[in-house]
Structures are given as C-alpha cells and as structure tokens.
Amino acid sequence: MIEYTDDHRAKLEAYLAKHNLPAGLGNEESACTVAAINLAMREKLTDDIPACMSLVLGKAAIGLQDAMPHGMRNSARYKALIPNMSGTGRVHETKRLAVLMDWMWTVVLPQVQPYADKKGFGEQWREMCKEKTPASAYAAADVAAARDAAAAAYAAAYVDVAAAYAAAYAAAYAAARAADFAADDDARAVRAADAAYAVARAARAAAADADFWTAVDPIGVLERMTYLGMAANSAGAAQAFIESMMD
After folding, report:
1. pTM of the model as a whole
2. pLDDT 10s digits, 66-104
3. Disulfide engineering: 140 pairs with which of 1, 11, 124, 228, CB 3.0-4.6 Å?
4. Following DSSP, what letter does each residue of 81-103 receive, concatenated?
5. Which residues pair with 176 in a beta bridge?
6. How far apart are alpha carbons 58 and 189 in whole angstroms?
7. Residue 210 to residue 21: CA distance in whole angstroms
8. Distance in angstroms (rounded) separating the CA atoms of residues 244 and 247
9. Contact call for residues 129 and 110 (beta carbons, < 8 A)
C-alpha cells in the first residue's frame, strides 16, 4: 500500500490550486476528485480509490462531486477538503457510512416533502423519512409510482410533472436499496454510497427548491465523513488552504 505523504499532499494542493475539477473522470488537465489524488500519489489518471483512503468516503466523493454544481465542486471549501480525504484509511468505515445514510434520510429526502404533499404521497414520504427502513421506502415508492401512472394520460402535456413523479419514485427506491445494503459487508457499504448519490440526484429532480445543493450541503457530509477520527489540526489545515486560495 502506498502511504499518503506530506509530499503527496503538497503536490495535490498545487494541482488543485491550478486546475478545475470536472464531472466524470476528466483528464490530466482537469481530473476528478479521486483522479487528482491518484495523479499526486501515483502520477496515474484513474478513479480507483487508493488503499490509504476510506472506500466509503471515496465512493461517496465520486458520486457527489459529479452531481454537485460546477461552482460548488470547484469552491475553495471543497478543494481544501480533498487533501484530507486521501489518508483517511478504513478503520471507521461503519461510522462514515452511518454519517452518509443519516444525511440521506434526514437532509436529502425531506427536500422532496413539499412535492410529495402536493402530489398525494406526502404521508408515505413523511413516514419513510421518519422510519428510515426499506419497507417504508418501498411503500412510498409504490404510492409515488401509482400517482405517476395516474398522470400518464396527460404526460405529453405535462412532461415536467411526469419527470418529477419518476424522480420521486427513483429516490424512494434508491433509499430502500441503501437501507438494504447498509447492514452488510464492505462491498455492500460501497453500494450504499452509490445509492446515496442516486438518491441525491433523484431528489434534486423532484425538489422544487432551486437552491437544493446549498440546502443539502454535500460538501458538509463529505467533511463530516473525512474528519471522523482525525486530529483537530486537519480541519485547521483545511481552513489555511482555503485562505491561501482566496489570497
């Protein structure tokens, strides 16, 4: 296993200061979060998560950085976080997954509640967010799907409505799958991270709030996952890096 060194950190910080992060893998001039880490550590463009990095955090970062807006992905705050992701290790995977799942259930999915209330599956959606179980999520998804079917006759005239129904339906099913995966081994934990990303994408499509990504704060959940078990000075280093980029 390649250890994450101070030299790697310096190379990564230098790269992030001069390059934009894209959605997707990108290239050597514009690499995604994990690819930028690999360029600094191995001089290789790949989104394989380094062994020194939390697997759950890496998978969540890949999904959420692709989903969040370009400006948020390239903010000083997010770029300051990336060098601290690299050496997180895999001792606290269960705790990191718990942070991610709690964010999904209590922050992301409630964003759809006003839409669910308006469209007739608000009670089931509220119960799902409260219970946080596969059964409640599947129940909410079934009702959302039924409402979607009822709208099919006028879908041609209201394509955006049909799309929003489908998004809510997808969000609930993704949530159910995430709950299924959360109690199992590392491979299922990674699939749960993927599901949380799918939930965020689907919920964004259904939520009316134009400031959705600001409201759910994906950088915040990645920060909480990153700093689990780390020394307090890591957060201080991140703040110093933010300030240096803003000079």
Report:
1. 0.82
2. 999 999 999 999 999 999 999 999 889 889 988 998 998
3. 124
4. HHHHHTT--STTHHHHHHHHHHH
5. none
6. 11
7. 23
8. 5
9. yes
